[in-house]
Please model this.
Amino acid sequence: MKKSILKTAGIIAIALFGLVSCSSDDSNNGPGRGGSIDAAVGTFTGKITIEEGPNAGQEFFNAKLIVTKVSNTQLKVEAKSGEAYSNVTAKTMKVYNNTGDIMGDGNIPEGRFIYKNSSKALQVFTLQQAASDVTYIFDGAKD
Model:
């Protein structure tokens, strides 16, 4: 009987230890994650290719894309207003700092965001979330 009680107590202690040690994983962003996303904020010049919507397939060179910080984990991406390509849909994307590079956080429904800090290069690929969305691919560099 005593062995049974000790065995049960041991199993409970191991289970509780496992739960406590795993709970800290929720706040851990994984290896290389963490830090400011501010490096990706700014104006970028490059090529926009319209994927879906009016003018699908059209390319715009020397296009300006503006990235602004919404929160510590979100960036807003929008085209410069008043341009032929300004009708592309602005997106707010969840991102993280991956040892200096700013990346979209997994398979976010808005699309893909990749900022390479070493080359100041930005790649954005937006996905359609509404029938009115004008999706695009942007490849460019920070001004």
The mean pLDDT is 84. Strands lie at 42-52, 59-71, 74-79, 91-98, 101-104, 111-116, 121-126, 135-142. The helical segments are 2-23. Residues 74 and 93 are 5 Å apart (CA to CA).
